Amino acid sequence: MGDQIQFIVEKLNQEPFRKNYNLISFDSLEPLQLLQLLSDVLGEIDPKHAVDIREELPEQTAKRMLSLLGILKYKPPGGVSDLSVFRQGLVTGSKPVIHPVLHWLLQRTSELKKRAYLARFLVKLEVPAEFLQDDTVADINKQYEELMEAFKNLHKEHEQLKTSGLSTAEIRRDISAMEEEKDQLGKRVERLKKRVETVQNHQRMLEIARQLRLEKEREESLAQQKQEQKSQLFHAEQRLQRAQVQLKEMQHVVADSKPESLMKKLEEEINFNSYLVTEKIPRELESKKASVYLLQKVAAEPAMTQADLTALESEINEINAQVNQLVEKRMMKYEPADSKFSMYRQQASIIARKKEAKAEELQAAKEEMSSLEREVEQKSSQAHELEGSEVLTEDELKQYVSKLRSKNTIYKKKRLEIAEITGEFGILQRTEELLRQRHEAIQQHLQAIEEKKGISGYSYTQEELERVSAVKSEMDEVKGQTLDNMSEMVKKLNAMVAEKKASLAPVIKELRQLRQKCQELTQECEEKKIQYDSCAAGLETNRSALEQEVKGLLEECAQEQSNYRYIHCMKRSLEVQLQRAREEMKAYVSPDPQERRRAVREQYTRIILEQENLGKKLREKQKVVRENHAPNMKQMKMWQDFEQLMECKRECFLKQQNQAAIGQVIQEGGKDRLVL
C-alpha cells in the first residue's frame, strides 16, 4: 500500500498535474479533495470530465465516473468486489476505493487516453428493434455502422503509419528526387513546346486537345451523375413497391374485416398485453431479481473448494431422496377427503402452465412473424436487384391466404394433440418411474432367491442372450433393407439424370440463340450510345453559348433597370423641389398678409429679428456683469477671510474648554488624595 501511494504521489507531482504533494499531505486529503483529484485525472484522460465536482450533485459525479471507468474497463480489486460497496465508496470519497483507482489510471495514462478517444466514436448506440422498422431510421443506422467501420479502418491505417515512422532523411531524399523529376519534366515540356511550334496551327490543335480533355472530364462527371441518379431511382422504386405492398395489404384487411372482428381482435390483443404486463412479466422479473440476488450472494462469498462442492452435492442428494420418500408416502396414503381439492389444484396448475406456454408461443410467433417480414422485404429487394418482379396476383394471394388459414387450423389441432400427448407423456413417465422402482425391487428379490438356490446371475445371463439375439435379428433386417434402398436410389438417380438431360436440351439450344441475340443488341446499343453522346455534346455546346448570351442580356437589362430607377428618383426629387419653390413664390407675391407670413422668407426674417434682439439683451447683460465683476470678487474675498477668522475663533474656544476640563479633573484628583 505504501509503494502504491508513493507511485501516485510521484506521478501527480509530474507533468501535467504538478500538485507538489508529499506522502503526508496526500494522505491527509479530505474525501472531497480526493474526489476532485480523481476527477482531474479522469479529465486528463478524457477532457469532457474536467469539471468542478462542487458544481454537480454527488450522484451525478458517481454516475459520470462509473461510466468512464466502465468504458476504460476498470475492474475493482478483490477487497471491493461488491459493486454497491464500490459505488458507495466512490460517492463518499473513501481512500481504500480512490487510491487503487488512481494507481490504475496513472499506470496506463497514455493507453487509457487512446481508449477514451476511441470510445467516443466506437461505443455503439443501441436502437430498439421497433424503431428499426422505419426505413429512414434503418438507413441512418446502417450509415452509422458503415461510418464506424470506416473509422476503425482509418484508425488502423493511422496507427500503422505511426509505427512505420518514415525518417526525415528519407522524406528529404524523396523531396529532392521529386524536385529533380519536376525539373526534368519542365525541360521535357519546353522541348515539346519548341517542337510543336514548328507545326502549322499548333495553337488551334492545343486548344482542341484542351477542349477534348475538358469534355472527357465532363463525360466522367456526367456518367457519375447518371449512376447516382440510377441508384436514387432504384431506391425510390423500392420504396414505392414497399408502399404499394403495404397499401394492398391494408386494402385487403379493410375489405375483409368488419367492425365486430376488429373489436374482437383488439380485445384479444389487449387481454394478451394485460396478461403479459400483470402476470407474466412481473413473475419473470421477480425470478430474474431472485437469480441476480443469488448470483451476487454467491459472488460475494469466498471461493469454494472441491470438498465444499462434494458436501453440497451430497446434501442435495439427501434432500431429493427425502422429498421422493415424502411424495411416495403421500401417494400411498391418498386421503379421499383431499382428492377433490388435489384434482382442482392439479387442473389449475395444468391450466396455468398451458396459459404460460401459449403466451410464450404467441410472443415467439410474433417475433418470428416480424423477422419473417423483414426477411421477405430483403428477399423482395434482392429479387428486384436481379430484375425480378413480384408474381403474386390478387387471386393467388387470396388462395395463398386460404391455404394459410387451413394450415393454421391444422396447426392449432396439432398443437392441441401435442399438448395432450405431453400430458399423457408426463403421466406415463411417472408410471414408468414407479414400475422401474418396482422392477428393481423384484430384481433384488430375485437375486436374493438365486443366491439362496446357488444359481446367482442366471436371470441376467438369460436376458443378455435374448437381447443379443434380438439385436442380431434387427441388424440383419436393417442390412437387407439398406441394400434394397440403395439399389432403388441408384435407379431413381439414373432416371432423374436422364430426365433432366432431356428437359434441358431445348433450353440450352434456346439459350445459345438468346446469347447471340444479346451480343447483337449490345453492339447496337454501343452504336446508339456513341450517336447519343455526340449529339448530346453538340447540344451541350449550343446550350452553353445560349446560356452565356442570355446571361449577358440579363445583366444588361438589370443595369438599364437600375439606371431607370435612379433617373426616376432624381426626377421626383426635382419635382418636389420645384413645387416647393412655386408655393414659396406664390406666398411671397400674395397681397394677403396671412399668406405672406407662411412664406419661408418671412419666417426666416422673423427668426433673424428675434435672434438679433436676443443678442442685444445678452450683450447688455454681459456689460453689467463686467462692470460689477471687481466689486463682487472683492466682496467674495472679504467673506472668505471672515469665514477663516470665525473658524480660528471656534478652534481656540474648543482648546480652551478642553484645558479647563483637564484642570478640573486634576483638582478633583488632588482633593481625593487629601481625603484619603
TrEMBL record:
GO function terms (MF aspect): tubulin binding
A GO biological-process term: intraciliary transport
Annotated localization: Cytoplasm, Cytoskeleton, Cilium basal body
CC per GO annotation: ciliary basal body; intraciliary transport particle B
Gene3D superfamilies xrefs: Intraflagellar transport protein 81, N-terminal domain
Keywords attached to this entry: Acetylation, Cell projection, Cilium, Cilium biogenesis/degradation, Coiled coil, Cytoplasm, Cytoskeleton, Differentiation, Phosphoprotein, Spermatogenesis
Coiled coil spans: 137-253, 309-389, 483-563
Parts of the chain that traverse the membrane: none
Residue span(s) of domain IFT81 calponin homology: 3-126
Top-level taxon in the UniProt lineage: Eukaryota
InterPro entries assigned to the protein according to its UniProt record, in alphabetical order: IFT81, IFT81_CH, IFT81_N_sf
Protein task: Component of the intraflagellar transport (IFT) complex B: together with IFT74, forms a tubulin-binding module that specifically mediates transport of tubulin within the cilium. Binds tubulin via its CH (calponin-homology)-like region. Required for ciliogenesis. Required for proper regulation of SHH signaling. Plays an important role during spermatogenesis by modulating the assembly and elongation of the sperm flagella.
Membership in a protein family: Belongs to the IFT81 family.
Protein name: Intraflagellar transport protein 81 homolog
